Amino acid sequence: MSVRTIIEPFRIKSVEPIRWTTREQREELLKAAHYNLFLLHADDVLIDLLTDSGTGAMSTHQWAAIMEGDESYAGSRSYDRFRNSVHDIVGYTHIIPTHQGRAAERILFGVTCKKGDVVPNNTHFDTTRANVEFVGAEAVDLLIPEGRQPSLQYPFKGNMDVVALEALIARVGRERIPLVMLTVTNNSGGGQPVSMENVRQVSAICKRHRIPLYFDACRFAENAWFIKLREPGYADKTPKEIAQEMFRYGDGCTMSAKKDGMANIGGFLCTSNDLLAQQEKDLLILTEGYPTYGGLAGRDLEAIAVGIQEALQVDYLRYRIASTAYLGNHIAEGGVPIVQPPGGHAIYIDARAFLPHIPSSQFPGVALASELYLEGGVRSVEIGTLMFANAAQMDLVRLAMPRRVYTQSHVDYLVEVILEVFRNRAQIRGMRLTHEAPFLRHFTAHLAPI
Ligand code: F0G
């Protein structure tokens, strides 16, 4: 018997208790939350897989850096460290800090887009789509067809359909497309990676039409790891070299440092275009803060400066991707339909296949997420008809893994809960909406079982 080669590459210095509830309590709590898991109190959740955003554990190096935070309003040392660390990876001239990813999106689209414009993306995340639409532009998803078939095995299901991109540019004209975006990894499409080859092709098309290419870079390190594992020619490159190469094919990026920045808050917007950067910084001052802090404390900038480099470490990425796959592979072996292959930051259960008796109009993803909570106190999130309404191409339940937070025994428990719900799936009922907000309705919607 050989000894395993992957374990959690850290030991735990600080712990936080989690709390059991009874099934009867959870029934009451779920009713009070109108069957919307966003409305639960976090103390009533045992294993919280709502998001991998801002929920990671920081390292001793990050906590030490936090103590070095320089809280000067302008020109702080912490900004320099943040700027140099991010610049080392992305290579763009202007690194504009923001309080999180959507603030970078709002500023980018606010400055570059107007009514009637069109923004193509492999798949817009919900806040990205909402920010594009908020300025009157149209958000178009151009995912390859393979990316829309949950059970299909394909190494780069996050790729953009380059034929569809060419067709879109021909149809609407390059003047109406202020930028093209690639989301790495493709969160709404199953945490699936984009290949370097696809990045290169999209970049070539953008250059030919003189359209800037931006990355929604939230999970750039996980994407780089998948390229290393799966794409010919990259096995011997470091994750950082792969990430650096990817960013070279683009003109800028938006980033939520709450993901592969390994921080609890923060983000940034990058460009090498001086004129654009000036307009972005002007808007930043209006709504986020001075350009050397952008709505963050100096200590937050320090946490990102250290964390974004840690996210690229080989030991960490090997563990990270293996631990997510461990969950996915174990439930898939039990028959649970998931988006294959397992994603980087999350496992996505195909709720339409899990609950074939519940039509999309009755929110099978919400029904399944509610049941996972009832069964085991597990909080997940629907990515489907509630989140995207008519734009939903799948009904998925995402189990997002916070970084460096849960151990293998937590994951074994999750497997048991999910398999138990799968055994009893025939009893699960659909849902109906009883209240909805005009946009981003999934955060606050109220539902009830049918
Ligand atoms: N882009 C992608 C691909 C994201 O996944 C997110 C956030 C954002 C942009 C916005 O970043 O939250 O810092 O404003 N995703 C989180 C999630 C919320 O749960 O997937 P933010």
UniProtKB/TrEMBL annotation:
<keyword id="KW-0456">Lyase</keyword>
<dbReference type="InterPro" id="IPR015422">
    <property type="entry name" value="PyrdxlP-dep_Trfase_small"/>
</dbReference>
<dbReference type="InterPro" id="IPR015421">
    <property type="entry name" value="PyrdxlP-dep_Trfase_major"/>
</dbReference>
<dbReference type="Pfam" id="PF01212">
    <property type="entry name" value="Beta_elim_lyase"/>
</dbReference>
<protein>
    <submittedName>
        <fullName>Tryptophanase</fullName>
    </submittedName>
</protein>
<comment type="similarity">
    <text>Belongs to the beta-eliminating lyase family.</text>
</comment>
<dbReference type="GO" id="GO:0009072">
    <property type="term" value="P:aromatic amino acid metabolic process"/>
</dbReference>
<keyword id="KW-0663">Pyridoxal phosphate</keyword>
<dbReference type="GO" id="GO:0016830">
    <property type="term" value="F:carbon-carbon lyase activity"/>
</dbReference>
<dbReference type="InterPro" id="IPR011166">
    <property type="entry name" value="Beta-eliminating_lyase"/>
</dbReference>
<dbReference type="InterPro" id="IPR001597">
    <property type="entry name" value="ArAA_b-elim_lyase/Thr_aldolase"/>
</dbReference>
<feature type="domain" description="Aromatic amino acid beta-eliminating lyase/threonine aldolase">
    <location>
        <begin position="48"/>
        <end position="415"/>
    </location>
</feature>
<dbReference type="InterPro" id="IPR015424">
    <property type="entry name" value="PyrdxlP-dep_Trfase"/>
</dbReference>
<feature type="modified residue" description="N6-(pyridoxal phosphate)lysine">
    <location>
        <position position="259"/>
    </location>
</feature>
<dbReference type="InterPro" id="IPR018176">
    <property type="entry name" value="Tryptophanase_CS"/>
</dbReference>
